[in-house]
Amino acid sequence: MLQSKSFVRKTKQGKVVKVVREHYLRDDIYCGASFCKVCDTNGARFVSPGSTILVVDTNVVLNQIDLLENTAIDDVVVLSVVLDEVKNKNLGVYNRLRALCSNSLRRFFVFSNEHHKDTYVKAMTGESPNDRNDRAIRVAAQWYQNHLGSATKILMITNDRENKRKATEEGISSETVESYVKSLGQPALLDLLVQPHTSEDMEIEDLRPSKKKVIYTEHKPMSEITTGMRCGFYHQGKLRVNRYNPFEAYVGSESIGDEIIIFGRENMNRAFDGDIVAVEVLTQDQWLNEKSLHIADEDDEEDDGVHLAPSSADDAPRIANSAQGSSENANNAPSRRSGRVVGIIKRNWHAYCGSLEPMAMPAGNAGIAHALFVSKDRRFPKIRIQTRQLGNLLDKRIIVAVDTWDCQSRYPSGHYVRTIGDIGDRETETEVVLIENDIDAKPFTSQVLACLPPLPWSVSSEDLSNPIRQDLRHLRIFSVDPPGCKDIDDALHCTSLPNGNFEVGVHIADVTNFVHPGTPLDNEATQRGTSTYLVERRIDMLPKPLTEDICSLRADVERLAFSVIWEMTSDAHVISTRYTKSVIKSCAALSYVEAQARMDDSRLLDPVTTDLRNMNMLAKIMRARRIERGAITLASAEVKFQVDTETHDPLDIGMYQIREANQMVEEFMLAANVSVAEQILKSFPQCSLLRRHPSPTKEMLEPLLRTAASVGLDLDVSSSKALADSLDRAVGEDPYFNKLIRILATRCMTQAVYFCSGELSPPEFHHYGLAAPLYTHFTSPIRRYADVIVHRLLAASLGIYKLPPIFQDRPQLTSIADNLNYRHRNAQMASRASIELHTIIFFRKRPTDTEARIVKIRANGFIVFVPKYGIEGPVYLTMRGEKGGGEWVVDEQQQKIRKIDGSISYGVLQTVQIHMEVVEPQPNRPKLQLTLI
């Protein structure tokens, strides 16, 4: 049946036009019940006659998704009208709902009510879209009841009073979420409900005595924010909370071109880390200077008076103490542009991991208890929840979701989602790391695994005879990787040619031969985006049969590859470049240590060692030429753990050592990535996936310049070349000095990001750190989905395959690039969090004295970096409540902090002796405490 569906919409030019679309209606859409006598029962989800089938409305899905995900809730009809409405309102909830509907272990069924002739409803004159959708839900619920008859009960779940009233009048059974959950007889499920915020909640809002009631200002409406941003009164940006002080946050504003500091919970005005906010800049007399910035003590957690803006009387004494006796520097201390949040443009609320603040059990140990949830991540405020299972939760790591934060409430309100495990258990704490960073560690589904070829797999005669694939098995190809690497996605060869030149090849695992566009395997990899490396395990982007066997370029087995092959002169100039799909057979899988040992041992003259030395010689020339162009050699504090293979406990910890062999491999991977970027952009200028690294602003580099100046260094930051040369000259008597300066420089940089070439102009493609006009990722398709996309682009540019249709959809490509950037950053953060977790495990029974370098001065102490272990943390000079002799003065220009009487002084980059010990200043929040010896 064909229906005409019409609606009006406004064009970009402001004209209102009527749109008429054909809407097809069918009578053969199945209901999903296996016991139905009318429908085809293939793929049915509801199997038990007599059970209750729930029809949920849109708001129930949007607000109660945590409840729906609980296995106690099943036999749910998700109407297409609800699915579409959820997709338009909250993409995150939509994805969770789709996952429920596609999970074969859950009984959630999508019914296309909008295309069934008996359930489609036309909008009536004067009826709002919301009312029309509510009516469509009631009509579908009524149809289900008539369709299945007495075989089962249909229950519509809604919290909308008007919708429920109309359902009752129309003879449809309906209940609120709470009344239905109560009927299940599982009180713990009630903890999962999002509770409406009422004035009664205010009565129980402060769970312990407070010096002061905190009242936040109302958020401005979006219309006023939009006008204010257009006029320059307000500025938009993402709020980032300082990991060492949760009362200090920063908003990077493009309209100003600088960061705005937000100091104190009052000025943050209920914004969470990661929220997109609108900020009003305070008058200049209210701006903070560097001396005012503190490292927050653990017990400062909720002492808001200490952390209000400097104009507040509560904060004046502490800041005065910092400045006392330093009038000669008071006028010279640089002020930081300061502001306050006036509105939330986009919330970043997600699931938070932590534990309940210890408290006494209520009398009788029954009924609802009000508790404070403390996030494991100090950047987030405490969250008030209600629970009926307090006794079971007090010693557990749990997940809590935020529901509301009223302007008259000191804490946000939320609800319990689920229990992770016992506090302190390594498996529990590792799961916390994964959840906090949104890393999907679930096993691959049967649909995904069904996309893999059967094992054992080997190169077939068809592969060898395929004209698109060149047989390179005769070449002496080898790989160089970290020790114990199983997912080997790159290999190399270097052959001397009769003309004195070299043929050099980079061979990359041909992952796209097995991962085809649009398959469940490809969709899963698209979503995961990257593999995540924790201290004791790896969370794969692709299933292990692919990563460790079929695609891994292991020694002495034939494998499929995508090869970039150059002819190079002996001074590393490229004569020609070619790209080909290939079959290779690696002759050696070396570790970095093994490769380095071969190159260093002058007695070894075998072919592989000779190839290594030739490659290293070329790599050194290429590296020098790249640095001459302005590439910056940065440094990071990479930590390496030695882990017990059985218990997974850390046995030893130290800084990761970079060898010439590492740099050799890196140089040729960079060269391959640049070559492929040039090739794909030439063929597909509008839809290539590239990687850019924006130049840091002068404001971003300011902390580095101040630190350098305080130790007598004059860094030139006018270009990447000037900065690279300055860093090369930054040497001192301390052998670690240069690396420390490079680590500080790294922290001033912007993030490198993926983007679609059609979205930007060529000058914006530039990669600042590599000093390269073009760059992409091609060399790790086993671990990164970006490289899978680039492999498809390269194959299409060579005429091997057609470009998949998705490359014609630029918004979709941009969405994929955004997800890749999000996943890449999350994987980095998870790796760091895993290192922090294992650092605490390692030092828990090993108190240690060691050497550290001061990297940042604060009003009550400084941040130090520990070279031996790659650890960074705060050292306090003034403890809270300390009386007499505890006053310290910050000299911002000299980057020093000294006692008022001048008896002791500490400066940035100075070496200090510290004691490291794991302590627990707050229950369930162990930390590595660093103290001066």
UniProtKB/TrEMBL annotation:
One of its GO terms (cellular component) is cytoplasmic exosome (RNase complex). It is found in: Nucleus. This is Ribonuclease II family protein. GO terms for molecular function: 3'-5'-RNA exonuclease activity; endonuclease activity; RNA binding. GO terms for biological process: nuclear mRNA surveillance of mRNA 3'-end processing; rRNA catabolic process; rRNA processing. The keyword Hydrolase applies. Residues 52-165 form the PIN domain. It comes from Artemisia annua. Pfam families: OB_Dis3, PIN_4, RNB, Rrp44_CSD1, Rrp44_S1. Belongs to the RNR ribonuclease family. Residues 469-800 form the RNB domain. SUPFAM superfamilies: Nucleic acid-binding proteins, PIN domain-like. Signal peptide: none annotated. Keywords: Exonuclease, Exosome, Hydrolase, Magnesium, Nuclease, Nucleus, RNA-binding, rRNA processing. Residues 321-335 have a biased composition (Polar residues). Residues 296-337 are annotated as: Disordered. The lineage of its organism: Eukaryota, Viridiplantae, Streptophyta, Embryophyta, Tracheophyta.
